[in-house]
Amino acid sequence: MDRDVFLLQGEMNPANVPPRSFSQMPVQPLTSWTLPRLAAAGFAWLMAETLPALPAPVTANKRRV
Amino acid sequence: MSDVAVRRWLFLFLVVLSTAGAVFKLFQVLRVDGIDVLETLFLLLFAVLFGWVTISFWLAVFGVFARLTGARLLPLVQSTQPSSSRTAILMPVYNENVDRVFSGVQAIFDSLSGAPGIDFFILSDSTDPANWVAEEVAWQRLRQSLEPEARIYYRHRHRNIGRKSGNIQDFCENWGAAYDYMVVLDADSVMSGETLGALVRLMDANPKAALIQAPATLVGRATLFARMQQFASSAYGSTYNAGLCWLQGADGNYWGHNAIIRVHAFQSSSGLPKLPGRAPFGGEIMSHDFVEAALLLRAGWEVWMAPDLGGSYEEPPPTIYDHLKRDRRWAQGNLQHARVLLAQGLKMPSRLNMAMGIMSYLASPLWLLLLIVSGLEMFLPSGLAPFTYLGRQPELPLLVPQAVPLLQLTTATLVLLYAPKLLATMVLLAQPVAVKEHGGVGGVVRSVLLESLLATLFAPVAMLAHSWFMLNILVGRATGWTTQARSDRALPFWFVVKNFWPHTLIGVAVTIVLYRFAPGSLPWFLPLLTGLILAIPLVEITSSLRLGEALARARTFLVPSETTAIPVLTRARQLLTRREAVSDASDYRDLVLRDPAVMALHLRLLKEAPPLLEMPRAQLAVLADAARRRETGAFTRQDWVALLSDPESLEAIRP
User: Fold this and answer.
1) CATH homologous superfamily for B87-315?
2) Which residues of B touch A11 (CB under 8 A)?
């Protein structure tokens, strides 16, 4: 304790975190599935079927900080 | 049909075929004297467990095949253009060893040697006020030691809502829009600049990829148990990962850290719901990683694994005790996935990943049940007089007359259990450089043998522990989220006795009962019982640092991180040693009150955090008054948090 009472020497650095720009992360629903659909999904997996369309990027408001 | 589909069909076929074959064989044995209820149960348990072992076996076989044929496991190209994307490296911390966290961050920072577009965020959820202030001071010191333009940020949350996933979500919601990718780390993980650069280039060139997992190699610990895990991860992990990667293709999984994630994909599709009902099954999703990957896949994104990128490291738990403690948490997290498993729209690989996660803990109570059922069978009178077993022993565990098929089944099980290790060792031995890095042929053979022995002894201990966890979870006892022990420590003897006497007692009791009533079947159970009876010395000895180091000198359990210099790890170790040499045992909470600079820093950082108002003003005034008089001895943790979160009170007592 005696050795290092004043821990920080010199200037403190300016900005800590960059400015926040809040955009909420939507909660994804997890509702249960029925057996026939599950079976169909199993088949889809085995056939390595193509995927649904990707969601639109939400980077329109992307800012450089 | 695509290549990956062919592989999946083949895998399914092999698993089903080998399981069905074994189950049919056992069925033939059991039906000789008619099948009773107990035997039906036995057959069912056997089918599930044999199928489980078969999956690991074929996964290893696929891995060996992929490795030996040089299959392209990650069929993605890296961008050759200089990257203009922005990446945030996230280090979520929760009451972790501050020196270790900041040494890791600095080592990664140095390893990147000023690569553009990469920022660091230390996202603290620490609830211990001493840790909180220590992190602030360490962050400030780190900033002072680097150029002013170094972008290493520190953010503290007063409430750790949603635990780690909530921490990451908070980042995404506040700063996510400014970044293309985020790399999520764990408090003990280290990644090399080269690997991070490669991950960014992969993401740049593959816009449909939302997540690329760089599997972490275990490194950096020195106890016997930790070194054993490090060896297993290094020697077998690569083959296992190859098999997994080859089968899952773009439908991969997320292991919680050491992965790069496309922020907008994550943000738009991976928000976790709170499950209805109470913990342990309801509430926040504890093992969030699998679910996040499943949600990304559900939204149509690709999730990949990059098994050969290297440069991705984490530390194993130092002792069996710590390993099991972590398992307790993981078991609950994985079991909770039962609620997510049948969620609408998930892809089959996600469901399988979750099912396998559940099964990795459920297998233990099922195995225990199998043993109990076979034990009961032994004591119940059989319809037929028992045939002799190989002509000599009348008391068989199953009272079945057909010794040969039974022996075949036992052999098959043993082969399936040990073959993955053997196959992976063969792959390792085929690579001269890797052999050298693992201590030479002698070293590899010695290590594999010792690892197999210790793993065999450890298996029944883990089985009992996991079964106990499962029971606790099923009766609704939830576990908290404590900080993991991340440094080498030899466990005190009485501590081990206190925690592992039930294992020993059960082992001794079962041995006595078997010896008294069914001595002939004792040898069948001996490998399991030995592990249980020796639980205390096993845990104690494997937690030994000295033994771990002695084995290293004897070229056993050597791994590349010990035999070759890996710059980023060497740097992290150097920095940690240096930090530990100068770090004092200061009470950082107190330091805020005594050191004007620390107080100033703390107040500055408080301004950026939303206020925490949990305590009435009058009560805060009493605390502030006591703090001014330096009478903080009776402060509780809540008192400290309340005081340190309130700028007004702090301003009033500023030194």
Assistant:
1) Spore Coat Polysaccharide Biosynthesis Protein SpsA; Chain A (3.90.550.10)
2) 144
